[in-house]
């Protein structure tokens, strides 16, 4: 049973309108539409921002909670390598519109060069201010809702359950226990890829500022 929190109702409203990015009408009943996965350097003239795709691999680090998996994540761009860990876990999918409660946290890694990643996140999430330098934190925990699993992705950035694939469509809420910021964090452990995608431009500055503390 998924707890009927404000996170649940926020997700249910978006699912009910079949719009996981800005509540836009999808191409079909089984399609989840997200921002187009375009190269950041070739985004001129595009009406939708690109997503930020990163690499992830299962980590040997121990998880902090049961039924969670830890991933070592990297993002390389323009000669810089950002590194961070992601811990993520979720309950079983259930309900007339299948969803699941989820949780996780971002963990910093020594030697991460995050300037290029933060700059690309600003573009993708439509943040307006580069985050001020702030002390690094030991973790950034979040609540989340798993909106779809076994999803396939099409070239325009949409997700669908037919044909089935290996993507999980996830919306996270920051800070843990609140909802000052929301962002999509889609994961494909089989392919070894993760993706940040915009939920709403109003959250851009807050989300990037928080992520800057751990990425």
In brief, what are we looking at here?
This protein is mainly β and 215 residues long. The chain has helices at 6-16, 115-125, 204-211, and strands spanning 31-33, 52-58, 68-77, 80-90, 100-108, 140-153, 158-160, 167-174, 181-188, 193-197.
Explain how this protein is built:
The chain is mainly beta. The protein has one domain (6-16, 30-35, 50-60, 73-131, 139-211). The chain is built from three helices and ten strands; from the N terminus they run H-E-E-E-E-E-H-E-E-E-E-E-H. Strand 9 (181-188) and strand 10 form a beta hairpin. Helix 2 (115-125) packs antiparallel against helix 3 (204-211). The longest helix has 11 residues, at 6-16. It is globular and about 45 Å long. Residues 15-30 and 36-47 have low confidence and may be disordered.
Task: Considering the chains and any ligands shown, give keywords for the structure.
mainly beta, 3 helices, single chain, 8-stranded antiparallel barrel, about 35% strand
Secondary structure elements and their pairing?
Blueprint: H1 6-16, E1 31-33, E2 52-58, E3 68-77, E4 80-90, E5 100-108, H2 115-125, E6 140-153, E7 158-160, E8 167-174, E9 181-188, E10 193-197, H3 204-211
Helix pairs in contact: 2-3
Total helical elements = 3
**Which series of helices and strands comes N to C?**
HEEEEEHEEEEEH
Radius of gyration: 16 Å
Instruction: Please tally the β strands and state the result.
Output: 10
Strand order of the largest sheet: 2-3-4-5-6-8-9-10
The largest sheet is: 8 strands, antiparallel, barrel
Low-confidence stretches: 15-30, 36-47
What percent of residues are in strands?
A: 35-45%
Task: Tell me the distance between the termini.
Answer: 33 Å
């Amino acid at each position: 049973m998924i707890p009927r929190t404000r996170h649940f109702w926020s997700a249910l409203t978006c699912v009910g309108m079949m719009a996981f990015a800005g509540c836009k009408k999808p191409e079909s009943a089984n399609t989840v539409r997200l921002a187009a996965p375009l190269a950041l350097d070739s985004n001129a003239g595009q009406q939708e921002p690109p997503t930020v795709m990163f690499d992830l691999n299962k980590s040997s680090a121990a998880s902090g909670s049961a039924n969670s998996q830890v991933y070592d994540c990297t993002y390389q761009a323009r000669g810089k390598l950002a590194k961070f860990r992601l811990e993520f876990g979720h309950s079983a999918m259930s309900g007339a519109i299948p969803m699941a409660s989820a949780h996780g946290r971002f963990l910093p890694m020594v030697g991460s060069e995050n300037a290029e990643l933060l700059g690309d996140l600003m573009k993708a999430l439509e943040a307006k201010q580069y985050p001020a330098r702030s002390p690094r934190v030991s973790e950034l925990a979040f609540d989340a809702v798993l909106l779809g699993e076994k999803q396939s992705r099409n070239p325009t950035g949409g997700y669908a359950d037919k044909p089935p694939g290996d993507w999980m469509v996830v919306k996270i809420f920051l800070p843990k226990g609140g909802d000052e910021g929301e962002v999509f964090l889609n994961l494909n452990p089989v392919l070894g890829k993760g993706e940040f995608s915009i939920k709403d431009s109003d959250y851009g500055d807050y989300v990037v500022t928080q992520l800057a503390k751990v990425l």
